Amino acid sequence: MTQNTELIVLHTTKFGENSLVVHTLSREYGRRSFLVKGAGKKSTMSLFLPLNMLEADIIETNKSTLFTARNLIARHPLLGIRSNMFKNSMTMFMSEVLYRVVKDGASEQGLFEWCERNILMLDAIQTDFSNFHIRFLLELAVALGFSPEAQDLMPFVGDHYPVVEKFMSLPFAESMLIPLNGQVRNEIAEEILRYIEFHTESAVNVNSLKVLRELFV
Fold this sequence. Notes:
Layout: E1 2-15, E2 19-26, E3 30-36, H1 42-45, E4 53-59, E5 68-74, H2 79-82, H3 85-101, H4 111-124, H5 132-143, H6 154-157, H7 161-169, H8 172-175, H9 182-200, H10 209-215
Antiparallel strand pairs: 1-2, 1-4, 2-3, 4-5
């Protein structure tokens, strides 16, 4: 059986000499990994950058739970992201969070559409996106079904509570203009991750946050 589907790339793992296991998010399959044969070449690796949005034919079989993805093409070029070092770093962070937080096999209703909107929004924003990953984390908690109120975050964010409350009450555009230095911004991101860890009962350990800490000073 073959099904055409849309995928968001979260992570890749090398498989054999010339293939990849691509860990993805999709509307039909939720969080699932697919085997892509012949994808280990440098010429094709750009297709699997973090949060790339692809279209693929999924070959389902009863012989293995690891289905094969073929005929992959990019649905959106994401030129606004790929031409910007800061946005690229954010997609590394966002994809790693999703990869570690959303468990393999999980299918959260509306999560794919929410991720798609966020990726396209980040791609389109021209300026004032340094706070984007904070807003992303807060909205992710809602998308995963936690739906926190500002007070629910107080035990995790401590002295940063007034700022977090602003993020949760202001419209998106205004929240991007909240003045923060790099240290505070990343402290808040770490605190929200701890809140997400608490509710998912697992350690997230997002390594790419270190990159954002160095870039957004």
